[in-house]
Amino acid sequence: MAILGNQFKDFEYNKNRIEAYSDAVIAIVITLLILELKAPHFKSDQFIDCLHELSDLHSELFGWLISFLLVGVYWLQHHNVLHMAKKIDLKVVIINQISLMGICLTPFTSSLVGKNYTSAFSLTLFFIYIFSGEFNAVLALPIHCS
How far apart are CA 113 and CA 124, in angstroms? Predict the structure, then answer.
């Protein structure tokens, strides 16, 4: 914290502003998730043919669903941690920003897995991302509530 100087050391931030900012970032992330899905151009008007073309998107739809639920869990964890926070200082703001930075990777990792679901590398990267988010939430809890 010495880099930022002592003027921010004892400054207390408004919890509502942090919550509103975080909610906005998470809402944008969820919006970007759906924008990653590209609707197919149907080659036929037959119902069965259209379903078949939609089934080609099953891995991308599954990636979207998992990521949407994951962002929802992150939002809930974030909400609960901020609810328990007694004060919001510079440490909390920095941890919050790092947490949001991780959440912002969701559309990329979701798209990567959706398009490369048979790739061990993309699946490994996705699971590292999931567990790092959970790990980040666990580490942030004592700092947020101190």
Answer: 9
* Of residues 134, 104, 119, the one with CA closest to residue 33: 104
In a 3-state reduction of DSSP, which class is residue 88? strand
Q: Is 36 left (phi over 0), alpha (psi -120 to 50) or beta?
A: alpha
pTM exceeds 0.90: no
Give the span between the Cα atoms of 111 and 100, in whole angstroms.
18
The residue type found at 129 is Y
Q: Is residue 56 a part of any domain in this protein?
A: yes
Confidence of residue 92 (pLDDT cuts 50, 70, 90): confident
Is 34 a member of any domain? yes
CA 133 – CA 78 distance, rounded (Å): 11
Q: Domain range holding 82?
A: 14-144
Work out the percent of the chain whose per-residue pLDDT is above 90: 12
Q: What is the pLDDT of residues 39-67, one digit of tens each?
A: 888 888 888 988 888 888 888 888 888 88
